[in-house]
Specification:
The protein is an alpha+beta fold and about 525 residues long. Helices cover about 30% and strands about 25% of the residues. The strands form five sheets. The chain has an eight-stranded antiparallel beta sheet. Strands 7-8-13-10-11-12 form a six-stranded mixed beta sheet, with helices on both faces. A hairpin with a 6-residue loop joins strand 2 and strand 3. Helix 5 packs across helix 13 and helix 10 crosses helix 11. The structure holds flavin-adenine dinucleotide (FAD).
Length: about 525
């Protein structure tokens, strides 16, 4: 593996919401040579990761792998060495002999992806082979490992978020240990596959579920086995609807058989609502996407729309704040009205609709997962907080996803409503966020924060959100995998410490992997 030190001592995330003093920033790349097959390059990079860990064990300098560097929280930050994984972007189709005879699906459903591959690259590569991701975030510059590690979500209300299509993880944990981990209850690969990666296998549901959303704390995720779906189309539609009692009932029950206004009884695959905080109309922009079989003769949405219909709040606002780099609510208001015009019968593949990779502008985003029954209380709280601590220069939105199987997946409710508040990076926005989060506590609204966005949490709050048993389960799994305190130290960052997730359970190691 190539390692190029950039001699950088300060690192900022993509939206420049913080800066972090670092020891160095290292670009990683696969060693390309004409005599190396992709598999050999991959295995050589596994060796490279083990050598890196060895040198960090000797120096005690922490290290963290970066994905797309898109997170707003300091989840990817470290005072030590940051590793740029984006050039590690190999991907592999899976042959019939690499699949376990107990696997419930087929080898065509599987795809093995090196950690730095971006979601955008994945969409493009899968399209060529007639396959699709089942879901992703709305914007797509994250890497597969980075998106997974915080539980990135879209609005696939009965499918869930990124961790739900991950069925195997190849993780490098020590100078001489790397494992392929999958669920015991869901066998996927054969010994032939793991032999090719020269890795040991762990079949363990608890460990796998804990590692899914682990923000760099479980070692270096080198490869991710994903389940894809046959290429499909979304039939998309946007309605402007009054946020009245009918819509409130739909948003808190998701019962489309008794749904509001023009919404038919067919349950959408993707369901999302955007609110314009400036409009006096009480309107909501309700977007639904239905999954349809792929065919070649559809009008591609990209050619029809100046504003991509799959674009999310941060991407939309970023473009505005790039042109108007100050708080101009009236501009946001009029552009929101212009963007969210009703449409129907617009078709596109997942990769075409969710295609944005731009990260312009001074944008902030905070998101919480809540039980669907709490949706209208949270929306009311946002309105009130906007009056008392706003007005915010931004928008808020609601997306729905099925419960995550990841131990610390923040979409932990069945199903989860994810409420996101996006706005201009300013003191006003932070004051608003603080007041909103205080409001959640005062109103006793249970919630979990998106790990990669602005968040206000600590060990006590995490235990309240997830349950102390669940937090212990995650810590125990970490100890079981990493085993050594010095390894735990190099894979710990300050944010984890502030959350109390650096704890090493005394009784956590009895279940050691041998
Ligand atoms: C414009 C924009 C739009 C967004 N839209 C959405 C959205 O629609 N839905 C949503 O849920 N979120 C969204 N987000 C948030 C974003 O998806 C998450 O913060 C995501 O985790 C960022 O992924 P990344 O690849 O940039 O990883 P980073 O932010 O670089 O890292 C995230 C975490 O992954 C870890 N990590 C990365 N690679 C590895 C590896 N190989 N091994 C171990 N750990 C690793 C890092 O250490 C870090 O802890 C958006 C962000 C932006 C900037």
């Amino acid at each position: 593996m190539k390692k190029i030190n950039r001699n950088i001592r300060e690192w900022k995330n993509i939206h420049q919401t913080f800066s972090q003093t670092i020891e160095n920033y290292t670009d990683l790349a696969n060693e390309y040579a004409s005599n190396l097959t992709p598999l050999k390059m991959y295995n050589e990079s596994t060796e490279g990761f083990m050598q890196l860990i060895d040198s960090h064990l000797q120096s005690n300098i922490p290290l963290r792998v970066l994905g797309g560097e898109w997170s707003w929280s300091k989840v990817a930050a470290s005072s030590g060495i940051l590793l740029n994984s984006k050039p590690l972007n190999l991907s592999f189709g899976i042959g019939i002999n690499s699949v376990s005879s107990s696997y419930l699906k087929t080898f065509q459903d599987l795809y093995f992806v090196q950690c730095g591959t971006s979601i955008r690259e994945l969409n493009d590569r899968l399209r060529i082979i007639g396959r699709s991701l089942p879901t992703s975030g709305a914007s797509n510059g994250q890497t597969i490992a980075g998106a997974l590690s915080t539980g990135t979500h879209g609005a696939a209300l009965d499918f869930g978020s990124v961790p739900e299509f991950v069925v195997g993880l190849h993780i490098v944990v020590d100078k001489d240990r790397h494992y392929y981990i999958e669920r015991e209850s869901y066998p996927v690969v054969s010994g032939r596959f793991t032999n090719q990666l020269k890795t040991e296998v762990i079949k363990d549901d608890e460990l796998f579920n804990a590692a899914l959303v682990s923000f760099g704390a479980f070692g270096i995720i080198h490869g991710v086995m994903i389940e894809t779906q046959p290429l499909f189309l979304y039939e998309s539609r946007l309605d402007i609807m009054n946020y009245d009692n009918n819509l409130k009932t739909l948003l808190s029950a998701l019962d489309f058989t008794h749904s509001a206004g023009t919404i038919p009884s067919e349950r959408p695959y993707h369901f999302q609502v955007v609110f314009n905080p400036y409009a006096a109309t009480n309107n909501a922009y309700v977007s639904r996407m239905y999954k349809r079989p792929y065919n070649n003769s559809y009008n591609r949405i990209a050619s029809d729309f100046e504003w991509n219909i799959g674009e999310d709040g941060p991407a939309f606002l970023g473009k505005i704040f790039d042109i108007f780099p100050g708080p101009v609510p009236s501009v946001v208001d009029s552009l929101l009205r212009a963007k969210y015009q009703p449409y129907d019968n617009k078709f596109g593949t997942h990769g075409e609709i969710f295609s944005n990779t731009s990260t312009n502008g001074k944008v902030l985003s905070l998101a919480i997962g809540v039980p669907v029954t709490e949706v209208n209380r949270v929306l009311e709280l946002i309105k009130i907080t906007n009056r008392t601590h706003g007005p915010i220069n931004g928008l808020y939105a609601l997306r729905y996803v099925a419960k995550s199987s990841a131990t610390l997946g923040f979409s932990k409710y069945d199903p989860t409503a994810i409420i996101e508040i996006d706005g201009f990076n300013s003191n006003t926005m932070y004051h608003f966020y603080t007041a909103f989060v205080n409001g959640l506590e005062t109103e006793n609204i249970e919630h979990c924060f998106h790990w990669g966005k602005v968040l206000y949490t600590n060990r006590q709050k995490l235990e309240k959100s997830y349950g102390s048993d669940v937090i212990k389960q995650w810590l125990k799994a970490r100890k079981k995998l990493l085993q050594k305190d010095e390894l735990m130290a190099i894979f710990t960052n300050d944010l984890m410490k502030s959350w109390g997730l650096d704890e090493i359970l005394i009784d956590g190691g009895e279940d050691v992997i041998t």
